Structure formats: C-alpha cells, structure tokens
Amino acid sequence: MSTSAIAAPVDPGPSADRTGKPPPAAPAAPAAPAPPAPPQGVAPLLTELQKLYQQTEEATEAYNGTAAELKRRTAQAKRLGAALAAARTALSDSRDAAGRLAREQYRERSDFSGYARLLLAPDPEHLMDQEHLLRRAATWRATTVKRLATAEKRADALASESRKVLDRQRALTTRRGKQRDTVRARLGVVEAKLAKLSAAQLAELARLEQQGTAKAQSALAASGALSSVRPPSAAGGTAVRYAIEQLGKPYVWGAEGPDSFDCSGLTSRAWARAGLVIPRTSQEQWRQLRKVPLNALRPGDLVVYFPKATHVALYIGNGLVVQAPRPGTRVKVSPVASNPLLGAVRPDPGGAPLADYRGPRLPDGATEGSDTGYGSSSAPGQ
To answer: In CATH, what is the architecture of 229-346?
Structure first.
C-alpha cells in the first residue's frame, strides 16, 4: 500500500482571521471634489456681448424708423382729415348750387325758353343785353356741373387715401410693438449674461474693450485721419454745444430728449437745435446725408459705426465724439474709434466754416463712465 503526501496547512496571512475568512472590507475613502469648471474666457465673452449689443441697436434703430414713419403718417392723416372736411363742404355747396339749377330749369327758365322770349322782344338793344345774360347763365350752369363733378372726385380720392393712411398706421403700430418686444428680448439676453459675471470678469471686460479702443484710436491717428483740425459751420458749432450740454443724461432706447437719449436721438436733436431737421435713425442719417472722409472731419459731423450703420455719434474735434453709448450708460465724450467705424456724414455740406472758432470747454468728468454698459442695462418700458 502506498502512502499519500499530506499537504501543509496554508498560512491565511495577516488579512485573514484564524478561521481563514477575510475580515470585512474597510470603507472607501471619500472621492476628492471635482475641480470647478474654468470660467468662460473673457475675450470670447466680450465678442459675444458686443454682437448682442449690436443686434440690440439694430432692433432699436428699426423701432425708431417705424416710430418716425408712424409720426409722419399720423401728421399726414391729420392733414388729409382737414382736406377731406373741406372737400366735403365744397361738395355740399356744389350740390346746393346744382339743386338751384335744377329748380330753375324745372320752372322753365332754360336756355331755350329764355331765347324764345328774346326773339319776341321789340327792342334789339335789349335783346343783346339779354343774350349776354343768357351766355353768362349758361357758363355758370356749366361751371356748376363741372365743380360738382370735381368736388365729388376729390372727396372720393381723399376718402380713399385717408383709409389707406389709417390702415398703414395700424400696420405700423403692430410692427412697432413687435420691434419693441425684440429689443426687450435682446436686452434680456444681455442682462442675463451680465448677471452671471463676477466683478473681476466685468472689470476685465471693460479693460479689454478700453484696450481695443485705444489701439484703434492710435491706428486712426497714425493714418492721419485725425491730424487736421477744422472749424465747424455756425450750425455745426450749435449742434456741438447742444450735445455737450447733454453730458451725463442716461441712455434710454428710443429716446430723443430732452431728459434721455439713444444714439441717433442725440444726434438728430442736436442738429434740430441748430435749425436743421435730419433723419431720425442712424441708418437714414448714413443713407441720406453727405458722406465725408474721416480725414476731413469737422465738429458737428456725424460718425457712423458698424456695417449696418446701427450706431452714431457727433464729432466735436480733436479725435473725440459725444455719444449715447449703450443701455446702462450716460451721454459722454469718447474717442472717435470707440466702436468699429463705418464712415462719417455731414448734415450741412454747404455750410461755410467759421473764420474764428474755439471749441467749448468740456466739463469735469466728460470722459468718465463706461463706453460699454456692462453692469446694467435699461430695459425698454415703452
């Protein structure tokens, strides 16, 4: 009989008890907290906010254009109403005259009966007088009929035009409401983004934009665009003085003074004070007014910004403009390159420059304040 080998007992090791069973597992150490997500880069955020502000200004200027057209249509409707009332009075008078003519003819006072009586008249001289009166009567009758027809046509035409204008007013009112809602929505997007930023991020946004403005201003000066100082016309000088008097007043979209302004509200009101009515919106100012090169700028000219001409400021000389920058800001003096330049226009190209001109003194704090509006925005309330 063979013998079998006996296996040696296995050492359970330090992790097992004497029964050979492993001890209960120790609780796992808590996981380290995930590192916070890095904040969004400020430079891309600046680009995004600039785009949002530009879109908001586009919507604002569209609203302003509709409001200006609505104002014109309202004035037109008022003129048409007065003209229609006068036409209806004239029509009533013409109908009264036509009624008298019909009654006379009914009483046999026609041309034929009068002529027959003249044939029987014994006095030829008297006959000639009567013939003259008959001709005058015939002319009056023809004129009465023509005046009646003309009055009817004019009253009908004015009534039709008045209906069209009223329909246009209703359509413009609806469009203005939709544009107002668009502005509110876009400003709401800006406000929501700004509300999430820290004070440090807001400060960095302002620093980056000021840095960009300084760089653009230096490049513009180096090109020679701001090397010449030209005096304004008399009207341009008045516009400059008015604009400077508005420093510190708040930007409110759609406002054209006297207590608050948007960008084109300020420029149009300044030139109105100078005695010249110019278009209300920045796009129409760019489209309708005489364009001038940047190296020919003189105080009173309007500097227009962005590819769609959605922002405008008033040039005051020495490379500076007065502008109502954005919601959340106040009217201030800024470098001419504070926004991407499109070009410049002159409201009074025929105005002779003043022989002697000294620009108005800028008050303390004229250049202070943000060009950006970061930190708050004025939501539209109209």
So the answer is: Alpha-Beta Complex (3.90)
